[in-house]
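Possible regression after last week's pipeline update?

I re-ran a chain I had predicted before the update to compare outputs. Posting the input and the new output here so someone can diff against the archived version. Not blocking, just want to make sure nothing changed silently.
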Amino acid sequence: MKKYYLIILLLIVGELSAQNNENTKIWTLQECVDYALKYNISIKQSELDKQNQYQNVINAKGNFLPNINASASQNYNFGSAIDVTGSRVSSDFRSNSFGINSSVVLFDGFANIFTLNQAKLNYEVQNATVQKMRNDITLNIVNNYLQILFAKEQIKIAQFQVDISKSEVDRVANLVDVGVRPKGDLLNIKSTLANDEQSLIQAQNSLDIATLRLAQLLQLKEGTIEIKEVEIKTANAAILANSSTQIYEKAVISFPEIKAAELTIQSANKGIRISKANYLPTLSFNYGLNTTYQHRQGAIDIFPFSQQMDNNLGHFFGFSLNVPIFNRFQFRTNVNRAEINFEKAQYNLESEQLRLRESIQNSYTDATLAAKTYEAAQVSVKAQAEAFNYEQERFKEGTTTPFDFNQIKNRLFLAQSQEIRAKYDFVFKTKVLEFYYGIPIVIDDF
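New output (post-update):
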């Protein structure tokens, strides 16, 4: 019995250990993207829409095949009749009939061909729509991933400020104890430490929020996630060597929004041809066979069931031609609607191209400005760091006030915060441009 208890205990511990390992998984950017693309509910719904479109393709292919239907019936007749001798006799009988019929369209103005082509195009449109959704989710993942990295660097800066203040509190406290510095200096430094600790808590809160957003985007039940530490020391501006026009010319070839709009035009054109095909005659071939069996109540069958079925077997075939002459303007209005949809599809393509061009132009301008901002922020941090080091030495020597020291220290903190914000802003905006250009998004140590 103790052996069984031990086995159960080991199984429970193993399960808890597995859950703990899952919760402490370190996620890379690629793992986040792959997970989201695999499990995102919106993508799954869009994939189902694509499957629905494919059913339309199958249905359109089936229109080329003949239909085959079977029928069977059993009938009963009750009553009486006068025979040739003048006697009343029963006319109760039952009968069975069986049949198979089939028809196939030989010509319909090529409507079936155009319908199949349109169904295939609509399937490709939905496929492009799925790809667009995947792109949008990928960019959202990248943005949220960078937000976590930014928040972690912000915590490091805030922690550095706290460490400096703690060190100064200890140093000034010793000086106050020996009567070298007034107690007011110690109180000022403690006040600065309290503010720095508050800034650290705010930075930690920002990290928690960024982590929650990424976890929610991945639809993780735990509501938290731990990502791989990536140290982005510099930002790559190589993409800015291309003009916005060059980036657009690359994007317009492959972006799913443009592809979907182009395919929609082709689909709308097929819709026009389908509508016009209704003006043409339709030729069909029909074939069928049937047989019957009849039995009079109370009588002996002269011919048994199988023989009657064979004797009464009949075949028929024929051709049917349907020529439209007047249809109360239905065909005409269908053609008009199809032509309107075609024109709308053309405008939609122009709109998507314009939207893509403007989006790239805006992203290019944003990235260019972000590069300048980041460069200026780096210069500012360098200058503020030099000023802080100088002021810190003066504060240690007692030649400056705690107020002046805190002012310089706060300016350094602000400059460092602005630098990392500018860096991650620049990184994301260049990654967006690279995405437009067809370069896979990769965030690694660089």
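Follow-up from reviewer: compared with the archived run. DSSP finds ten helices and eight strands in the chain. Marking as no regression found.
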